[in-house]
């Protein structure tokens, strides 16, 4: 008799991870440009790389549980207290911890769709029911989210800027939503891409919302994007101290490794790298807007370091031709956006190669 696996596993679609670059380059016989994973276009913070090298000789020691030095540095930067912070092995672990601490079988979780896949995975593994809320014009429709709340709703998962489409939540709509969302519903506001927003005053202010809703809001941020440390896996939650204490009961003691803690703390001090990343993304996304418009392709204006392009034709063949030319983009069909591409914003040189591969793909797949 085979093992009796959990029935919820059959409802989960495994995440499609980017292929190993070295193996793909060897198979294609050329360098590969990966613009499918929303990685930092200029690489990691140099200060972080230096700190990692300095810490490497101590990897025989367990990391500091709870990342206290990193917590103090982030708290000072954000104007919160260390007790309001919890660190994880990437933002994915923070989502998992929230599911472990909050959700039980029979609960409902409202998730705008399409969305970052781990929200639904976490809910399903907890035995909860996912209640989808469709996007409107590629944006989260907060009025629709409110309409889908019910007596069994335990959690709402939002992202601003939204992944996979890019727009951030507007400030006025967010404030209205907070005023109407029941106090016993937990809100997860994923701000993984918040550092790329050009006009912070116009979008949802998660930190300000914590003061108005201290017990029912968890913010999620990461060092993967703006700091270029995706390979270190450092995400963190910001919430009221009692919420953090509760989440901490589900956390493994040594969940953030020693090199990751050192690198993240150093990256936090690297304002030059942070500003250089923003300049590249802000400049090059506008260049991509113009290039896509010249090709007659519709795109979604973005507040993140990626954008969504509407092809008006099946996206799989286009992705395949681009891949054969050594350029990786995300097939929108894999993230709930058929006939779309999701493209990370690169440097000028990277985007020139992207556009050449896109032109070849569009010409070859008519």
Description of the structure:
- This protein has 366 residues and is an alpha/beta fold.
- It folds into 2 domains: 7-44 and 272-364, Aspartate Aminotransferase, domain 1, CATH 3.90.1150.10; 46-270, Aspartate Aminotransferase, domain 2 (3-Layer(aba) Sandwich), CATH 3.40.640.
- It is 39% helix and 16% strand.
- The protein is built from 13 helices and 13 strands.
- It has helices spanning 21-28, 46-55, 68-78, 91-102, 117-125, 142-147, 171-180, 206-212, 241-248, 258-269, 271-294, 315-324, 348-364, and strands spanning 33-34, 85-89, 108-113, 129-134, 153-159, 186-190, 217-222, 234-238, 298-299, 306-310, 327-328, 330-331, 340-344.
- The protein has a 7-stranded mixed sheet, with helices on both faces. The chain has a 4-stranded antiparallel sheet with strand order 9-10-13-12.
- Helix 5 links the parallel strand 3 (108-113) and strand 4.
- The protein starts with 20 loop residues before the first helix and ends with a helix.
